[in-house]
Amino acid sequence: MSKSTQIVLVAIILGFLPVVVMAEPNIVIFLADDAGWGDYSQSGNHQVQTPHIDSIAKQGVTLDRFYVCPVCSPTRAEFLTGRYHPRGGVSGTSLGQERLDLDEHTLAEAFQAAGYATGAFGKWHNGTQWPYHPTARGFDEYFGHTAGHWGEYFDAPLEEDGRMVRTKGYIVDVCTDRALDFIDRHHSQPFLCYVPFSTPHSPWAAPDEDWARFKDKPITQQATDPKQEEVNHTRCALAMVENQDRNVGRVLSKLAEHGLTDDTIVFYFSDNGPNSWRWTGGMKGRKGSTDEGGVRSVGYLYWPGTLPAGHTVSQVCGAIDLLPTLTSLADVERVGDKPLDGRDLSPLLRGEDVNWPDRMLFSTWAGRVSVRTQQYRLDHQGELFDMLNDPGQTTPVTTRHPEIFGRLQRAANDWRKQMSSEKPDVFSLSNGRRSVDPRPLPVGYREFPITMLPARDGEPHGTVERSSRAPNCSYFVNWTSPDDRMVWNVDVHTSGRYEVVIDYTCPDSDVGSLIELSLGGSRLTGRVTPGWDPPLYTNQDTLPRPPAESTMKEFRPLKLGKINLQAGEGPLTLNAIEIPGKSVMDVRRLTLTLIE
Question: Which strand (E) or helix (H) includes residue 7?
Fold first, then answer.
């Protein structure tokens, strides 16, 4: 029995008029990481079974032409704000570039202000340090990893209340457990529960029970260009999607257990196209591309008894529409007054006969811009395609429709200029660059005294380098010389005394280096001891890890001591004064905790 039904029954029993009283709807949002439109049985993929995700579409509304960004953090920024990601300062996926500007307001803030309990459980990817942290952006609680991709999917270290804790189990199962606990604790009040999964993003690591179903499975539905497909990557991605589907089912069952099904809006989507070449229904492109296959996602939404079951919205729409749509459906006022790029889709979701003018949706990444209308796509190379008659973008119609081409070309140029004029340092650099974002990393807020500074947010100097080309889940290695250093550009918010801890590894033969942490006139020295040299994990992955991703190991905390820091901006520098061995240590992160 739903909450609203219970309220009506109580009213009848007490002799009041039997007026239907609708409680505020709960909100549950599932976000897949790197799943393509074609990775679901609802999309026509016969190689995978996703009954729980499919049920959201069957019991609710399918957004048939739903568009996100080519990569992860931009989509999350657009979903949270209802605005194109360059406006919010998001220019990349790591090195601090993924941070959402602090003057942007989020969907979670709106629901939090309306009295909802709010929680996020999984991958955040829009900033690590407070106030970029999810608990500063509208979420009462957070559990997961704030980085873009995570190098450990089994027994992973994850963040809880600003501290890293070692978990037990598969990362998607673990984060879903926390979401279920959140629902158990808040089922008697309205809540927003955000579950951003880590999969099927690499590393290619699926639970054994899921991989067993796929490891020898023939791949009969192939990528648009079959020569580019790595079938084992397809198998593993689909195995991870099936695991994800099982966890979606667990959440839906929990809602039913508490009688909340009819009182909950559930939405499921992905953050970009597939992360490998696999079946997309003939679309062109994959993750990182501004073509159809790189930016089209499934979009399934249900609210049983309120929105029509089995309804399909054919109009083009996207992640930028979620904030105005969900706040409208829940009758919640949004926070902030910045103009939105998104539209309120609620009339379309309800199946109302409304005048809905055609629109242009813009996609950008790595300096490329593409424009989508209801019928056409202008790609980043300036070719026009009729997406109704040529969904695979095989034959340009540029010369056949010069007026349409000219209009979309002008719109793309105008949009590029607008983004560039608003945030010139963002849009011009939204190109997958490898330099650390110049915005300083905030340190030392009393309301969140723990500040983690991972290696990905720092800059190596000298012979120091990252453990892999992909910085998100990397660590600093090859620290061998007194001329070497690692630097984090920080902005200390509160003058005070800070406890310093370094997550490190060091062979016994190299123990004893004297290191120094400095900022302005403050100095702290200490010895690297004891030795700790664990092996690299060799049992984490189902398939070989891509060379660009770090192979992980167990890091331990080195308590360096306490340092006095003055408020202000500057380079927080870690260097070595004495090196008795071949190297100093490997560094995963540096943590500063404001203690007084």
Answer: helix 3-13
